[in-house]
Amino acid sequence: MKKIIAIIVSICIFAVLPASCAHQKSDEELIKERVESFLTAYNNGDLEAVLSCMDTKSKNEFSALMNIGDALIGGLSGFDISVSNIFSLAIGVQMGDVLTLSDISVDIQNEKKATVNAVMGYDDTMTAYSGQVQFVMVKENDDWFINDLKPVRNSVTEDISSGSETEGQVTEELQNIDPFEGLQVQFDGISPYVTVSFNTLDCEDIVSENVTFELDKEMFKEGETFTVTASFDKKELEEKGYSISNVSKEYTVENVPKYITSADNADFTELNKNMYDYVEANANGSVGESSIFDVYANEINHILYAVNKIDDIEYVGSCFMSLKNSNDIAINDNTYNKYYRIYSIDFTAVDERKIYVAVGINNISINTDGKICYNIGQEFSPSMLYYKAEITEEELNSKHIVSEKGSYNVTEID
């Protein structure tokens, strides 16, 4: 029980430390005296004297720790006992110095801050250990006080009752790591439907195994800045000796293909030729058939007549459609944009006839190298083309172009 209480006391005391008074001596002398005063006060079980060795800030923090520690220690020990009670009890039942310091060295960094490195030993007659510690000292009112006390390396623990010696771990100063160092942020898809994924292959193992990266939404567009948040179990990382330096970082979507929203800067020269070839091939393929582009060639007295010949194919105009709200793509057949070229076809089926055909292609995008692609980033294929056909231009326009203006921005092109 003595051993458990003493260790709990040590943990509580090491968590927060700080201050007392001095004489007209050198800074180094004052600092060493303060550390020795702390050591004496601790070994005497004098909590008030320990507090007098702390700086103002740490002294106030220790008061808060007292309240937390009372609940913590009560839960651990199963007794109704406070931090101050345990402090006096634990020290009072020991014989001789529980804590010792050796190899003390002082490093004065500036007129307000210094560090003291030393080897601290702990001996409660049952268990002994020692390790390198560092006191952080600050100057207040021309005197030096303890601001913090940190174990900085492994200790050696000796079980005196058995005479064995083992390597133990006094809580080491945590190694601070940046989880974003080496993180590869990868983009996939076509703007504004770019997805983001992460590759931790070049990250430290502790990051790859213990940190996940999260986004606040699923889809992004070119040029958009977004925040990646590192998610991890803080307690688990600390037990492994690590802390995280920053939990979020901003990135920008770049070097991705994008769907075009206008035909103004797109070179459709090759595409236009392919569209005409498509219309011509399908028109000529209808000769001898009773329909052309799924429209009956001619019907007289309930008798269907076949196409005799194609007389003329003439370009009428073009239009480009771009989705008004990118979030509506799912309810619009996953079509972000459309490009139509309209042709009139004169043909003979017993007598002279005419139909109007709109040849279309969907989802036109531009790669990072400026190359135009279709149907989700593919090179052109005639199979991507489709058509809408009506007997009159007015009917074609009404059914297949004007009707799209609810969801799409429609621009007519000469």
Give a verbal description of the structure.
With 414 residues, the chain is α+β, with helices and mostly antiparallel strands. The protein has three domains: 2-169, NTF2-like, domain 1 (Nuclear Transport Factor 2, Chain: A); 176-256, no CATH class; 259-413, no CATH class. Helices cover 25% and strands 38% of the residues. Strands 1, 2, 3, 4, 5 and 6 form a six-stranded antiparallel sheet that branches. It has a five-stranded antiparallel sheet with strand order 24-21-20-19-25, sandwiched between helices. Strand 17 (298-300) and strand 18 (303-305) form a beta hairpin. Helix 1 runs antiparallel to helix 4 (56-77) and helix 1 packs across helix 5. The protein is rod-shaped.
The strand count comes to 25
**What number of domains?**
3
CATH superfamily of the largest domain: NTF2-like, domain 1
Q: Say what the CATH topology of the largest domain is.
A: Nuclear Transport Factor 2, Chain: A
Query: In the CATH classification, which architecture of the largest domain applies?
Result: Roll
> Can you tell me the overall shape?
rod-shaped
Major beta-sheet overview: 6 strands, antiparallel
For the termini, the CA-CA separation is 93 Å
Helix percentage: 25-40%
Radius of gyration of CA atoms, rounded to a whole number:
40 Å
| CATH class identity of the largest domain | Alpha Beta
